[in-house]
Amino acid sequence: MSVPSAFQLREIARHLDDGGLIAYPTEAVFGLGCAPLDPFAVMRLLALKQREVGKGLILIADTPEMLQPFAAVTAEEWDRIAADWPAARTVIVPAADGVPAWLTGGRKEIALRVPAHETARAISRAFGGPIVSTSANVSGRPAARDALAARRQFARADVRIIPGRVDRRARPSQIIHWPTGRIIRS
Fold first, then answer.
1. Domain residue spans in the chain?
2. Above 80 in pLDDT, residue 133?
3. Best CA proximity match to 127, nearest among 59, 29, 174
4. What positions does the domain YrdC-like occupy (predicted)?
5. How far apart are CA 144 and CA 59, in angstroms?
6. DSSP secondary-structure letter at 83?
7. Cα gap 111→134, rounded to integer Å
8. CATH no., domain 6-185
9. The pTM is what?
């Protein structure tokens, strides 16, 4: 399946602007997303996933520049972080002042990624900024690896399912803690 059409992307962006939730393909699994600065949308997403707010969330975006305002790192550090993107690599960095606790889980850090999946990037581009990206599943259940599995998990919820393919051989993104270099998930 190809990237959604320009019309479809505008509709998806409007849905996000209106506080809607989406399930969309990423590198290895479907993501569940919403507008990151809309607290009501984020709380609905967390309730739907049955996920604690204290776990924090990942933000993805089309470009590193869209994510930079959320990070409190030097320009040189940012250049090194951004040099590896797009990739299935999430980086945890110090959060900029004012980043909401519903994104950081109450910590002073935030997880960021520019995915290597064109549909996920196209959605961010159409929306004009980052979107939340957490696996499309109810906590404790397997992550959806196709649109049908996402639809089954969220059949009774108001989640717009975006068709597309994931790399079935791939694993969820690597997570690196930038300040220490520790690999949290390989």
1. 6-185
2. yes
3. 59
4. 6-186
5. 19
6. T
7. 11
8. 3.90.870.10
9. 0.94
